[in-house]
Design a protein that fits this description.
Layout (H helix, E strand, L loop, with lengths): L26 H18 L2 E2 L1 H7 L8 H14 L3 E8 L9 E7 L1 H7 L1
Antiparallel strand pairs: 1-3, 2-3
Helix pairs in contact: 1-4
Length: 114
């Protein structure tokens, strides 16, 4: 049990919200949940990282995070929705500003959204 430190006026502060994220049960269910958000991001034509979209929409973690995020981005590229745009430092808290690939939506993604 963790101790709660009361404020100077004696009141108990509200509990802090932790940054926990849901984890999907299986790959297909997870893919069906996240796919539309990445198609939407690709349709904007702006450069983005995989984590930016996941964080913005509070998307669930896949069953195998170490491999499924990369697989998602490869599928989007293979389907013609995105292309590589370069590299950037990630904002993901656990990655310590590591270099990650950036993506940009293609003209086909913009046409699909229209």
């Amino acid at each position: 049990m963790t101790a709660i430190q009361p404020a100077l006026d004696g009141s108990i502060p509200p509990a802090k919200k932790t940054a926990t994220r849901q984890r999907a049960e299986d790959y297909d269910t997870w893919l069906a949940q996240v796919w539309p958000k990445y198609i939407e991001a690709a349709a904007t034509g702006r450069v983005f990282t995989c984590w930016e979209i996941a964080d913005k929409h509070q998307l669930p973690e896949p069953p195998d995070p170490a491999h499924h995020w990369g697989r998602l981005m490869t599928l989007l590229r293979d389907e013609g929705y995105t292309r590589t745009a370069g590299w950037a430092c990630t904002n993901r808290p656990t990655a310590h500003h590591s270099g990650v690939r950036t993506w940009k939506g293609t003209a086909a993604a913009r046409r699909a959204a229209a």
